[in-house]
Specification:
The complex is a heterodimer of chains A (108) and B (117).
Chain A (H helix, E strand, L loop, with lengths): L3 E4 L2 E4 L5 E7 L8 E6 L6 E5 L3 E2 L7 E6 L2 E6 L8 E7 L6 E2 L3 E5 L1
Parallel strand pairs in A: 2-11
Antiparallel strand pairs in A: 1-3, 3-8, 4-5, 4-9, 5-6, 7-8, 9-10, 9-11
Chain B lengths: L2 E5 L3 E2 L5 E8 L9 E7 L5 E8 L4 E3 L7 E6 L4 E6 L8 E9 L1 E5 L3 E5 L2
Classes of the chains: A mainly beta (108), B mainly beta (117).
């Protein structure tokens, strides 16, 4: 199965700071089947980005996604307090679907 | 609005079997092209996909769990189910039911399962 490795595991950012989270795959992933989820404590994950770069409904435009092959990223152009959460990447390119271990993003 | 709600016993003993129910409202689970899935999240937040039942009734499991997992459905009640046997403490997790097509766009609130004697 494809192993997704997210880095960093934990990070903190100041309001207004640009943030980049990365997701590295052990084998090539089709960009059509790479997703990102946001999860806040006590809540279920929410679909945040689908097919590498498409924002889910209601996701602020300061978020973006990019990547191909084995390297993907989620970027926040200007960190806001409400963006503090855990972010998980997920692939359905290869069976079985797998998730990254997550990045916990904190606000400074 | 689409909603999913899990239910389960909360606490089971090692070696026992658990059955979890997902009740879906707002859409029929026989609506085309959706996969109705079970996903679990362990303490420490690692996520694991368990399997799904397709709208057509086709079922696919994670190969790591296929020997002790069964997913079924009751279309008359718009519910689908997860049964898992030979439980150990390592199965302690929050279990989510969810809808997938392009990504997992709807999740239940999750039900916590603790396996302990």
């Amino acid at each position: 199965q494809i192993v997704l490795t997210q880095s960093p595991a934990i990070m903190s950012a100041s309001p207004g700071e640009k943030v980049t989270l990365t997701c590295s795959a052990s084998s090539s992933v089709s960009s059509s089947y790479l997703y990102w989820y946001q999860q806040k404590p006590g809540s279920s994950p929410k679909l945040w980005i689908y097919s590498t770069s498409n924002l889910a409904s209601g996701v602020p435009a300061r978020f973006s996604g990019s990547g191909s092959g084995t390297s993907y990223s989620l970027t926040i152009s200007s960190m806001e307090a409400e963006d503090a959460a855990s972010y998980f990447c997920h692939q359905w390119s290869s069976y079985p679907p797998t998730f990254g271990g997550g990045t916990k993003l904190e606000i400074k | 609005d689409v909603q999913l709600q899990e239910s389960g016993p909360g606490l089971v003993k090692p070696s026992q079997t658990v059955s979890l129910t997902c009740t879906v409202t707002g859409i029929s689970i026989t609506t085309g092209n959706y996969r109705w899935s079970w996903i679990r999240q362990f303490p420490g937040n690692k996520l694991e996909w368990i399997g799904y039942i397709y709208y057509s009734g086709t079922i696919t499991y994670n190969p790591s769990l296929t020997s002790r997992t069964t997913i079924t459905r009751d279309t008359s009640k718009n519910q689908f189910f997860l049964e898992m046997n030979s439980l150990t403490a390592e199965d302690t997790a929050t279990y989510y039911c969810a809808r997938e097509m392009v990504g997992i766009d709807y999740w239940g609130q999750g039900t916590t399962l603790t396996v302990s004697s």
